[in-house]
Amino acid sequence: MSKFRVLVVDDYPDMQWLLTATLERSGINTSIACDGMEALEVLAAGDPPDAIVTDIDMPGMNGIQLIERLGLDDRLRGVPIIVASVYPTSRVTNGLRDSDEAVRLDCIRRDGR
Question: Which neighbouring-strand residues pair with 9?
Fold first, then answer.
């Protein structure tokens, strides 16, 4: 049985380390991409991960653009996406307002609301 696999997409090395260390401590395999474009390259090179954790504000292709692109790919459309960002929930959901991907995006606020 293969391990659960997560793609971490973030441009900050400290956040990459924090996320991968936390996931790997729980027995989850991780791979890293520094922006949305690199994430698409990683995803094209192999089997889809079991989940994707992405930042929103990144150079090049940002997290919202990545989420929209994933929604266009039948192979990746069903992969759960977790947004890990310092931005408020409204900025994330407003960025996807005109996209079908907004329906699949559940945001968890730090204050629990």
Answer: 33, 54
Phi, psi of 84 (to 5 degrees): -115, 100
Which run of H or of E encompasses 93?
helix 89-95
Structural domains for the chain: 5-104 (3.40.50.2300)
CB within 8 A of 110, min separation 6: which ones?
Answer: none
The position carrying tokens 């992405």 is: 54
Angstrom distance (rounded) from CA 24 to CA 4: 10
**Residue pair 81/69 in contact by the 8 Å Cβ criterion:** no
Burial class (CB in 10 A: 0-12, 13-18, 19+), 58: buried
Q: Which token pair is 5?
A: 């696999």
pTM here is 0.79
| pLDDT tens digits along 11-68 | 999 999 999 999 999 999 999 999 999 999 999 998 999 999 999 889 999 998 998 8
